[in-house]
Amino acid sequence: MIKLEIKDLFSYKPLDSREVLNSAPHFEVTVFKPNQFVDGKSNCDGCCITPFYVNFTEIGWNDWILYPPGFWGNYCSGSCNEKSDDNHEIMKSLVTDQSLIPKPTCAPNYYGSIDIIIALSSVDIRRTRAHGMRALSCSCL
């Protein structure tokens, strides 16, 4: 079962669905299954997404980024098998000199955005969307 709750961006209070349906909503749904770690070892076999939280307070950006306090940026890690990846095989088929093709590397292939509220000055506060801030899936490229 999935529970969908729509919250006001500024007050973070749940909204009445009738109010929301009167205007075109923007939905961003993120579903990914992070690697499981048992005894310090990941269950990842190959190229996988690894959760990584960016805390704006820890990096000293909380004086101009007002909301959110941080976000899940994630990163890709793991090994790539040269023969098992379709993307790499397609690249190799397009180039005549195979020595020019580097070995495949685990890298993000799909990114997500985050909505942030920033203070440009004490009287200029804005809401903006920062694209490409979150790695959502990985592939051998």
From TrEMBL:
PROSITE patterns: TGF_BETA_1, TGF_BETA_2. GO terms for cellular component: extracellular region. InterPro entries: Cystine-knot_cytokine, TGF-b_C, TGF-beta-rel, TGFb_CS. This is TGF-beta family profile domain-containing protein. Residues 32-141 form the TGF-beta family profile domain. GO terms for molecular function: growth factor activity. The keyword S-adenosyl-L-methionine does not apply. It comes from the Eukaryota. Keywords: Disulfide bond, Growth factor, Secreted. Pfam families: TGF_beta (PF00019). Its main location: secreted. It is found in: Secreted. It comes from Caenorhabditis briggsae. Belongs to the TGF-beta family.
